[in-house]
Amino acid sequence: MLQKPKAKNARSKRFLVNREPKVVENAKSAIIVRGSSTSQVILDTLKDLYALRKPNAVNFTKKNEIHPFDDETGVEFFSRKNDCSLFAVGMHSKKRPHNLILGRTFNYQLLDMIEMGVEKCATMKDIGAQSCAIGARPLMIFNGESFAQDEKMILLKNLLLDFFRGEEADRLSLKGLEYVITVTTGPPGPNGEPGLVFLRTYTVDLKKSGVRQPRVELALMGPSLDLRIRRIRFPADDMWKQAIRVPKEIKETKVKNISRDGLGDKYGRVHMGKQDISKLQTRKVKALRKRLDSRPAKRPKTE
Amino acid sequence: MDVSGILEEHKGRFQPVQVERLIPVEHDLGCLASFDINMLDDAALRADAGVRETYLQGLSREGTQLLVNELFTLPTVVDEDSVYAALPKRSLVLPREKPVPKEKPMTRWEKFAKIKGIQKRKRGAMVFDEAQGEWRPRFGFKGVNNDGQQPWLLEVPQSADPYQDQYQVRREEKKERIEKNQRRHQRNAEESAGKDIGLTPHKMRKRDLQSALVLSKGSTASMGRFDAELKGEPRVKGLRKKRSPLVGAAGVEKSKSLEILGRVAKGDSSATVLNVRKAQRAINSSKRRDAAGGGAATGSKRKGSGKR
Fold it and tell me: Where is this region: Disordered (chain B) (predicted)?
């Protein structure tokens, strides 16, 4: 365990303060780690993942004895050291050929991870098409019913979105739509084993269409990965709960009595106080008019 | 006048942007994603690479077209030289990287101000210095408050000693003010540190002192045996172990062993014989030690200095 370091000067203090928890967080960074033995397929995959993640990524070029499913201390250590909350670890063994592990940490503790076998990898270099600009945000498309039903696939969807989404912004340059990552689930095998997951990356070409929306044309960019899910570590409930908390400062305050329907029409509800009937203006009749002096009228003398 | 022909011709020049989907596609424009749960063509996905790639590209094109159509209907902002679409908030729940920051504990002044309803007033950082005819910072480097020369003429108060250096008095007063502020800063820090563990600064000081005392006891060669005992000194376990003599006390040893045996044989209250909790802890710790010893080789390698 690393000890909490103490700043010795203003510069290092600024650096440490920048690492502290924030209300609005910066974009997540990823570490790309290669295991003790790797295959060319895995190396290519890691290289392309790094290219897509740049500049929020740290690429490890040396081998590391690391097995996140057996011992998470390794990734947690790297995560703390590099201040990265995403990791991709690639390794290759006889038992698990071309093994790719994608995962996340929360507060430098392992949150969840998915182990996948890379059955096919066509890299950007293989395809040789033009690549996207560094740091561009991709469009993400998930095809298949299981992304809404299967627990494993829901986690994979969440993890991939987190991995590739890049820096979040409240606006998007419409010229900056550069590439799209599509993830499609394949059909299950004959014995009911889960099918392949096809991850494809295309560059987007927006063409004139005569209307406001452009016509979209795609060209393969790479990487194209055929993945088969192996082991999965789901997040612990309490940790997940901690991780999805929204700070008070950015939580949207609920506006009372204003609602919108599906068509975008706005409805307001007005609450009336209790009406004071005694002050109600009724018809003006002379007989009901109040006297100027509030004294009761004199009774005529009876004698 | 019939313009349908012209429209048709215009349309014919471009490719369509409409895409048909049985179940409407769900979009999350905040993270530029869309989720399509329509049935996929399993035959195409099982087929050989060529057919599959064509199918996947077609599917992706249609999906992208739908997403782009949505993005282009968003309200736009024109800024400098580019057109931006104002994105809505993301609806998908993604975990944070680090926990939500803790709230800072209030200082004594903040608490007081809250009760009294005193609000912070914004004061400009720069002040106009009329003597110099320029703007200068209120505090800090070249600030108006730390000149030491202003005002350069000081009146000697009626009650004061006429030979007292009033400039010196002023310097000392300022020094005192700074020290007082530092003391309060320290106090606030101590109070906030103790708040997490539910201790007052006084209790915390006491605890620190006691732990220091215990440490110092073990630091002498005699393990504090001949140290003068202090008033209210904490009792320390395991420091002064009284051992029975090795020779000449066979009777004592025998009686002790018999006593233990008797307790075991009696077996009335198991807690006195075997502390289950303690035993469990001992087993666990020895197991952990074994495990750590086994993986030591890989562990040390992994945590090498900055190895990547």
Answer: 170-197, 280-308
Residue whose structure tokens are 């600024």: A14
ipTM metric: 0.83
Q: Is residue A120 part of a domain?
A: yes
What's the domain count of chain A? 1
Please report, for chain B, the start and end positions of each structural domain, with discontinuous segments joined by +.
8-85, 164-219
* Nearest CB to B59; choose among A170, A184, A216: A184
DSSP state letter for A182? E
Inter-chain residue contact A139 with B40, CB threshold 8 Å:
no
Structural tokens at position A279: 């002050």
Q: Give B208: exposed, middle or buried? Use CB within 10 Å, 0-12, 13-18, 19+.
A: exposed
Contact B84 A171 (CB under 8 A): yes
Cα gap A273→A276, rounded to integer Å: 9
pTM of the model: 0.72
Contact across the interface for A247 and B100, Cβ inside 8 Å: yes
A162 and B CB contact within 8 Å: yes
**Displacement of CA A249 from its chain's centroid (Å):** 19
Q: Is residue A240 part of a domain?
A: no
Give residue A105's domain range. Answer: 27-234
DSSP string, B235-253: P-TTSSPPPPPSSS-HHHH
CB pairs under 8 A between A and B: 217
**Which tokens go with B293?**
């010893």
Instruction: Tell me the pLDDT tens digit for each residue of A178-224.
Output: 999 999 999 887 777 778 999 999 999 999 888 889 999 999 998 99
Q: Within a domain: residue A296?
A: no
- A162 with B95: Cβ contact below 8 A: yes
Amino acid identity for residue B254 in this structure: K
Q: Which residues contact B256 (CB under 8 A, 6 or more apart)?
A: B244
Q: Does residue A12 form part of some domain?
A: no
Residues A96-151: tens digit of each pLDDT? 999 999 999 999 999 999 999 999 999 888 888 777 778 889 999 999 998 999 89
CB contact at 8 A, A215 and B15: yes
CB A185 within 8 A of CB A143: yes
CATH label of the domain that carries residue A187: 3.40.50.10480
Q: Which of A295, A219, A27 is nearest to B53 (CA)?
A: A219
